[in-house]
Amino acid sequence: MNKAQAVDRDSEAGDKNIVLHDLSKFYGDVLGVNRIGLEIEPGITGLVGPNGAGKSTLMNVIAGLITPTRGQLSVLGVSPSQTEKFFGQLGYCTQYDSFPAGINGYDFICNTLLIHGFERATAKKLTNQTLEQVSLTEAAKRSVDSYSKGMRQRIKLAQAICHQPDVLILDEPLNGLDPMARAQVIELFRSFADSGKIVLISSQILHEVDLISDRVVLLNSGYLVAEGDLTNIQSETGEPMKIFIRSSQAAAIAAQVFEFDHVVEAQMHYDGEGLFIRSTNADAFFLAFNSHVVDKGWTIESMGPADETIEAIYQHLIVETQVAT
Amino acid sequence: MSASDLSADTIEIPQLVPGLPVWRRQLMAIFRIELGKAMFSRRAFSCYALISMPIILMTAVAFDETRDGSNAFASIENAQRIFGYIFSALIIGTVLFLGNAAIFTALFRGEMLDRSIHYYLLTPVRREVLVIGKYIAGLAAAIVLFGLCTVISFLLLYVPFGIEQFITDLSNGIVVQQLGLYLGIVVLGSMGYGAVFMTTGLLFRNPLIPIIVVAGWEMLHFILPPALKVFSIIYYIKGLLPIPMDEGPLAVIVAPPPLWVSIVGMFGLSALTVVISIFVLKRLEVRYTEE
Asked: Which residue in chain B is spatially nearest to A88 when comparing CA positions?
C-alpha cells in the first residue's frame, strides 16, 4: 500500500470515527488531559476513571464546548470550527444539572429542535417522539424545575437525542435513574450503537459500563491509561489472566496444568467441577491446552476469561497504581 | 413505554442544509425564546419595577392638586417641561440605562451564571445568528417595555388638561413630534446601551463592574470635554430631546450632533459590538466552575 492509499484509508476511517490526535487541555497550569491519542469507533465506548481523571474535560473537548490547548480533534471527519456540521451530528448529555429558568419539558426539547433549524411541524413530531422514548410524555408540560433527579436526567438525555445525532456523548447518564429507567435507557443506547452510531459514555458505575460497553477508555490523572476492547486491555496489562474451565475432570486437569510454563496459579471451584487458573500468556495457554484436551480425551463444558471486567482492569491499572504511589 | 417503543430513529428527519432558510428559522426561534425570557421570565421583574417608577411619578403629579385646587402642572407648557425633566433624569438616566443593563447583560452572562448557555452552544447554529438573534430580541423587549413606559408617562401629562387639549396638540402635531422624539431616544438609547452591555456581559465575569463604570462615565458626560463627549451614548441621544434641558453651571456645552449622526452613530456602535460579541462567543469555553 502506498502512502496516498494509507492516507485515504485513514481519512475514510476518520470520517466514521472520533479522532483525537495528541490532544491536551490545560486550565492555566492545571492539567485537564494530556497528549490523548484516540480513535473511537461506532458502538458503545465506556470512559472510565476516578474523579479528576479528566473524563468530563475530554467529553467537553470532544463535544466542542472547550477548545484543546494542543492537538487536533475531528468527529466523523468534521472539526469543531465547522459549527453547523459539527453540532448537527452530535448530541451531548452533560453532567450540568441546570436548565433555562421556568421552562417546561416540552418547550425545552422543542426549542432545542427549533434552534437546530427544523420547521415547527417537524420539531413538534420529534419532540413528542423523544419525550416518549424517555418516558416523559405525561410530565412534558410541567416545569423542569419540579422534576425529580431521574426525570431531569431523562429530559437532558432527550435534549441530546432529539435531533437523532450520529454521535452521542453522555456524561454520567445513568445517575439518578431507577433500575427500570436504567434498563430502558441502556436499551436505547444499544439501539443507537446497533444502528452504526458512536455512543461515548462516562460512568463511575463500573459494572454498568462493563455491561453495556463494546470498548473502554481508561483515564487517570489526565492521561490515557488504556483503551480498546477488554480482552486486548487485559492482555496488554501483563497481569496473569484468570481463566475458568468447567469440566467434570477438573481435578485431573488441575494436576497437569502446571506443565505449561505460563500457568502461575490453579484453584478448584467449590463444587469440584470447575477450575480457575491464572496464565501470563492466555493466547499460548488456550492453544496448548486445546491440543492437550484432544490428547488426553478430556471433556470440557466451557472455558473462558473469568476476570475480564472493567473492574478488574480498573483495579489493576488505576487503584493499584495509586496505592503504589 | 414498552421496550419495543425504544428505537434510535423512528421519524425520518429532513437533512438540514445550512443556508438562508435554516438561518432564518434559527433566528426566529432564538428571537422568540429570548423575547419571552426578557419580557415574561423572572429576570423581567426588575424591568417592570423600573418602568413603573416614572408612571407612578407622573400619575402622582397628574392627580396632585395645589391649595387653590389647580393642578401641579399649572399649564400644558409647564407639564411638557416637567415631563422633559422626568424623561431626561428618570427615564434616560435610570430606566433606560439600568433596564438595558438588566436585559442585555442577561443575554449571555445570565445564561452563564445559571449554567444554561451550553444548550445554545451545542446546537448547530452559527454564532453570528445566535448573537444577532439575541441582540434583536433584547432590543425588541427594551423598545416595547421602555417605549410603553414613555408613552404612558407622556399621556399622563394630559390628564389634568382633558381630552380636548390632547386632541388639539395631536392635530397640531405636537404630540406626534414630541412623542416621536422621545421614542426615538428610547430606540437609539436601547441600541447603544444594549450593544455595550451585551458585549460586556460576554467579556466580564462580574457584570456589575462594567455597569458601574459605564454609569459613572455617562453621569459625568456633561463635564467631559467635547473630544470625550463623543464616546458617551447620552451625547448622541440627548440632542434629540424636544425640550432642551439645562445641565447646570458646570456643564461643558457643546452643540448636539445632527440627527443623522445620532442614528448612524448608534447603528455603528451596535454593529461594532455585535461583531466583537461574535468574535468572543466563537472563542467562548463553557467552564461553569469558574463562574
From this structure: B124
